[in-house]
Amino acid sequence: MEYMGNPYIFPHPALADGQGVLAFGGELDAISLFLAYSHGIFPWYNHIYEPIFWWAPAPRFVIFPSEVVVTKSMRPYFNQAKFTLTYDRCFEAVMRQCQNVWRKGQQGTWIDENMIRAYSELFDAGMATSAEVWQEGKLVGGLYGVKLGKIFFGESMFTKASNASKFGFISLCHKLEKEGFLVIDCQQPNDHLRSLGGRFISADKWNSYLRTNRKYLVENDIWPL
Hints:
- By secondary structure, the chain is of the alpha+beta class.
- The chain contains seven helices and eleven strands.
- It has helices at 30-38, 75-79, 91-99, 113-124, 164-178, 191-195, 203-219; strands spanning 2-4, 21-25, 42-43, 53-55, 60-63, 84-87, 128-135, 138-148, 151-159, 183-185, 199-201.
- A hairpin with a 2-residue loop joins strand 7 and strand 8.
- Helix 1 crosses helix 4.
- It starts with a strand and ends in a 6-residue tail after the last helix.
């Protein structure tokens, strides 16, 4: 684990420790997030008593858009249109709902005002997205993440109605598949994501997707400014 004396120069992801922690320090803004995610690095920390921690776990837990699991119990939500779905309609509102989700084993949230500002900058640059799930005109679920090149880096989700976040995530997977996305980075494993088709891939495989994606970014002149 290394200290980031320069906020825009990251250590090589292979230097991450056994838990996936790569570095601490630096800045949170659109440029640092772009540089981090393009190399499979993401911030995650407790803003109350920690500096910014940057993570690059390997092997990586991912979902391939074409492999997302739609269980029998979920089909009525699509067939009967129980929810309404929008994209990028209220990005900050989704982040703030995710901010308020209680998670077992965590003290507070890593989604502080600096995170909301930085990811909103990335959203304004067209490199972050949100999916919003509505029921009777109320926002009842959603998720947000970084949509960089042809990889989607999932950040967080919330639900206020049964299966609302799952509906949003499955819908987003289908959209990403149509758009030719390579893979969805789930960052950390959990049972919910496993039920949706999440699995580990090797560091070599993950790095091959990152290299392909960086080539796409360069060839298409994609940059947050």
